[in-house]
Amino acid sequence: MSADALRNLIRDVPDFPKPGIVFKDITPLLRDPQGLENSVRLLAEPFRDANITMVAGIESRGFIFGSCVARILGAGFVPIRKPGKLPWTTRSHEYELEYGKDKLEIHDDAVSKNDRVLIIDDVLATGGTLAAAAALVRALDATLIGAATVIELSFLEGRRKIVGVDFHSVISY
Ligand code: AMP
Prior knowledge:
By secondary structure, the chain is α/β, with parallel strands linked by helices. The protein has 5 helices and 9 strands; from the N terminus they run αββααβαββββαββ. The strands form 3 sheets. Strands 4-3-7-8-9 form a 5-stranded parallel β-sheet, with helices on both faces. Strands 1-2 form a two-stranded antiparallel ribbon. A two-stranded antiparallel sheet has the order 5-6. Strand 1 (11-14) and strand 2 (22-25) form a beta hairpin.
């Protein structure tokens, strides 16, 4: 199944969660066995020979794809979560949104200096979320090898926020 066939499994939902946003709904892709299989295969592909030891998935749709990618690469999985969700001691990173601020957290023992880390999420939009995740991985002295998302909204130029990261997307709009 090609990236173009996968594109047909992404549903546009206008005005969700608020007016003016076109939400990229990945649930049709997830419920299609071939769609799920091929999307995670294509996410992992560029990093097959990169000796990734840990995949970091961003809450919450990054958990779904990230854990599948970890299995393909023979790596472990760690969650990067919204504030107050992780039970152990954490590092946190605050970042700017269009209106206001948000924060992401990681367990402080999630990755360490011997880890080669790949960050996975479903969508790259403005890039703030991925940039914050990258800052957390680097703050724990792990080596950030790359990042990948199923969808990239390239017109928002999120790649500009994640310079120095080997970034790949499966489907670009
Ligand atoms: P950003 O920080 O702007 O790159 O936003 C990325 C995060 O917001 C990802 O975790 C996505 O799940 C979510 N997101 C942003 N825009 C959309 C969209 N149009 N459709 C679905 N999810 C989105």
